[in-house]
């Protein structure tokens, strides 16, 4: 009876050891796999590195409103592009002209329209080209042709309507289209003839307009300086057929990424700062790390990365790093360490189930038996089902 009890206890002890060795092997593999996935999750996350590249003054990160990134025309450049000398209007398509010959009513005529190809029809002369000619040049041409038929004719040419002193105003104006100037045209006059700029709410950002002249000249005008500061040196003269384009405010975007409720691209609004951009994106999520918020601003080839501590801003009211944003800035909110761990855990759980299934199959085929024999000198199968 004593020997049977010993045999029973010995058998139970061996079975318990086998089960323990099986559990140790399985849990050791689980811990190894867990460490591996945590290592991968730490390596795969986005972690911007703060840098300070040699940024131009226009692109420096600062709390006040930044300067513009466009190369705006200076008053000297505008003056250099303005024709010098006495201004003379030149006839073109659509102009309305009247011709008066003294004591010759049969030769006088009102309301002569310049054709699209620049010709007019004159009594006793026929068609003649007046395209890009001044009023005095046209009078001289008619006089010389009439002198063949009449003795010292006295000719007067008058322009009734001007249609060849025009500009095309496009973009963010009340009435985009063609505007005609009665005299020398300027940028402000063109904007006024186009109905003016629509009502600017505080949420829009209107900073610039472009004057496109010919095939190779683009003049960028700083509207903030012209309209708000009254710098009339930027009120550029407009030449015939100039195109004035005012970009829509929606053309300028900032990008908010990372741990926010609704990441994406958002319209750059007037005076938008880092904190405002985060709030526009729905605010920080519960996994956000407010101590590590990054602003990435593109320079030439390399960008500038600055870390902003929003926690310090909210706790102590330190707005020194609440930078004003510019077009195409990127705001990235980093996740916390526990958020990275949770993400890794979500990826690991399916793998743990596969591991448990794999070790059960290996036990059935005798692989785990051979492994225990080599490592601990144990023999036999382990019934993982507990039977």
TrEMBL record:
It comes from the Bacteria. It is found in: Cell outer membrane. GO terms for biological process: monoatomic ion transport. Residues 87-159 form the Polysaccharide export protein N-terminal domain. Signal peptide: none annotated. One of its GO terms (cellular component) is cell outer membrane. Transmembrane segments: none annotated. Keywords: Cell outer membrane, Ion transport, Lipoprotein, Membrane, Palmitate, Polysaccharide transport, Porin, Signal, Sugar transport, Transmembrane, Transmembrane beta strand, Transport. Its main location: membrane. InterPro entries: Poly_export, Poly_export_N, SLBB_dom, Soluble_ligand-bd. Residues 253-333 form the SLBB domain. Residues 167-221 form the Soluble ligand binding domain. The keyword Signal applies. It is a multi-pass membrane protein. One of its GO terms (molecular function) is porin activity. Belongs to the BexD/CtrA/VexA family. This is Polysaccharide export protein. It comes from Chlorobium phaeobacteroides (strain DSM 266 / SMG 266 / 2430).
């Amino acid at each position: 009876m004593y020997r049977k009890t010993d045999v029973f206890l010995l058998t139970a002890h061996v079975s318990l050891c086998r089960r323990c060795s099986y559990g140790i092997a399985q849990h050791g593999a689980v811990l190894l796999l867990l460490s591996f996935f945590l290592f991968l999750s730490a390596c795969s996350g986005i972690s911007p590195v703060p840098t300070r590249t040699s940024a131009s003054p226009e692109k420096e990160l600062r709390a006040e409103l930044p300067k513009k990134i466009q190369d705006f025309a200076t008053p000297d450049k505008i003056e250099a592009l303005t024709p010098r000398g006495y201004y003379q209007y030149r006839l073109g398509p659509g102009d309305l002209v009247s011709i008066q010959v003294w004591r010759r009513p049969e030769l006088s005529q009102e309301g002569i329209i310049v054709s699209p190809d620049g010709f007019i029809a004159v009594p006793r002369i026929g068609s003649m080209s007046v395209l890009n000619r001044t009023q005095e040049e046209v009078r001289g041409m008619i006089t010389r042709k009439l002198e063949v038929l009449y003795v010292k004719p006295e000719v007067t040419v008058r322009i009734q309507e001007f249609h060849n002193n025009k500009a095309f105003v496009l973009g963010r104006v009340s009435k985009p289209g063609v505007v005609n100037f009665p005299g020398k045209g300027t940028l402000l006059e063109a904007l006024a003839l186009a109905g003016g700029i629509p009502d600017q709410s505080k949420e829009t950002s209107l900073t610039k307009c472009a004057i496109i002249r010919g095939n190779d000249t683009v003049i960028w005008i700083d509207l903030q300086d012209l309209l708000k500061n009254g710098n009339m040196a930027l009120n550029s003269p407009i030449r015939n057929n100039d195109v004035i384009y005012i970009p829509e405010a929606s053309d300028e975007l900032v990008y908010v990424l990372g741990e926010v409720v609704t990441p994406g691209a958002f319209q750059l609004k007037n005076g938008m700062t880092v904190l405002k951009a985060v709030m526009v994106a729905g605010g920080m999520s519960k996994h956000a790390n407010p101590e590590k918020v990054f602003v990435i601003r593109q320079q030439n080839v390399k960008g500038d990365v600055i870390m902003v501590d929003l926690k310090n801003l909210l706790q102590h009211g330190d707005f020194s790093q609440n930078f004003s944003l510019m077009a195409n800035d990127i705001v990235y909110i980093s996740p916390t360490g526990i958020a990275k761990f949770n993400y890794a855990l979500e990826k690991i759980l399916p793998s743990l189930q596969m591991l448990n299934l794999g070790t059960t199959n290996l036990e059935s085929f005798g692989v785990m038996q051979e492994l225990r024999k080599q490592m601990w000198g144990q023999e036999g199968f382990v019934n993982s089902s507990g039977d």
